[in-house]
Fold this sequence. Notes:
Blueprint (H helix, E strand, L loop, with lengths): L1 H32 L3 H15 L10 E6 L11 H12 L5 E5 L10 H13 L3 E8 L25 E2 L1 E3 L3 H4 L3 E4 L12 E3 L1 E4 L2 E4 L1 H9 L8 E3 L3 E5 L5 E6 L5 E3 L10 E4 H8 L4 H5 L10 E6 L19 H12 L8 H18 L7 H25 L2 H40 L1
Parallel strand pairs: 1-14, 1-15, 2-3, 2-15, 3-6, 4-8
Antiparallel strand pairs: 3-5, 7-13, 8-9, 10-11, 11-12
Amino acid sequence: MPEKYYEKSLRLRTLAVLLFSLLVTAASIFAYKSHMTLLLEEALLDYLQRRAPQNYPTESPIVLVSIEDLSFQKWPWPKLDFALILQALRSVYPQVVAFDVPFQRLDAYNPDFDKMFIKSLQRMRSVILPATALTERGLDQELTNLITIPYRGTIDSIDTYHSALWPHEKFADHVSVGFSNTSPSFNNTIRRLPLIFRWKHKIAPSWALLAYAEYLNADLFKSEVIPGKAIILRNDKREFIEEIPIDPQGHLILRYYPLEAHIKKHEFNDIILASESPNPEEIAGVDFPKLRKKLLVIARMTPSIYEPIDTPYQNNAAPVLPHLMGLHNLFHKSYIKSPSLTVLSVILFLLSFVSIALPFTFGNFRGGLYFIPLLVTEVATSILIFNLANIWLPTILIMTTMILSWLGGSILNFTFAKRKLSNQLDLFEANA
């Protein structure tokens, strides 16, 4: 009778621990998928970047051409000005020219300016224009010259966009176009830069990723995205170039640094003025030979915005600065891997150890035998849920922690059983 009661009690305990383990697994995945771990992760990122800054080399392939003086001409400027800047840069042979200026509309001043701008676009090696992705549905919109990247796995964790503010088709026909949205965090600061966007059922590159890929001569149509892991860049012969780590939402975690010490800047009008002068360095301080084979970013910003900011994440930056920071991180391979997986793994390890080792503390070997189905059930459930969530790394981590916990519980059970047997032998010898 006591033996049957003990077995029934052990089964109930095992069932209770099974339910507890499943709840822990489901709660952990919910916390990860709902970004609850980001609060702890972002505080950790802020602390680490302030305590352990990284020094970049001063030489950078990025050059900023800033549009600052808007006093003499109403914005938006006519396309003639942008045609002139491209003509001025043509003799420099830049690797890529990336505009962070919208071109959704044709010229409001003179249609001939559009023709001049298009002709200047055709003469450049590589020009990139920005677009803005929108979530609004109901628009049957076809995007001219949309670049897509093949992907492996599911893309459910990436935000879906159904419409866009796209450059006019007359301009988009002659350039590459990338999405330039940023992704502010909870307190309206920018710690991550989206590198990929989900356009309906396709994956499209961001403005920054497209500029970086074209600078490296990568072919995005032959590259690959693995959500939650990496973007694998390849050339037109499918040869490997580089692997860029991304989080499950397709973001790059930014490592912030004052850009004025690392990225050379020239004013828009100075470039045009220097191109018409026999001594450009003396007039505008522009050294044209140093612009050769560079990534030139043309963006609108005010002079004060470019000054050093008080904290790395203070939200007073011009829209182009997160993209410049992301490009700088990409060129210098300054990648930060998301610590939320580590935090989640530690929590799962502690909770799974408690839940798995609990039945063994009763000091009966059959407790371990009864617990084998529990281990198999929880591992199988974790694989199923994590596979649906497309997070393979935590799947491996939770399986490893469960197996280690089960082994730890087995050792604990063996120790208790051995001690109990030793006590019984001592009692038997004392009674004898």
